[in-house]
Amino acid sequence: NDLFEATALYDFEGRTERELSFKKGNTLVIFKQVSSDWWEGCFNGKEGLIPDKYVTLKTG
């Protein structure tokens, strides 16, 4: 599986243990899409869910 990088467009505060918290401008690693609204990935060594609308995937 290819890993993707994504850049955070906004600050996000995870509401559950499974959701990652990050700040605008952070780079996150994306593993896979788990639903139309969520990605699974990691940030700061922690794995969890990342909301699709808060990040933009880096292409190329």
UniProtKB/TrEMBL annotation:
Keywords, comma-separated and alphabetical: Coiled coil, SH3 domain
SMART domains: SH3 (SM00326)
Coiled coil in keyword set: yes
Keyword Coiled coil on entry: yes
InterPro entries from the UniProt entry: SH3-like_dom_sf, SH3_domain, SLIT-ROBO_RhoGAP
Ranges for domain SH3: 1-60
Domain of life: Eukaryota
Pfam entry (one): SH3_1
Gene3D superfamilies: SH3 Domains
Name of the protein in question: SH3 domain-containing protein
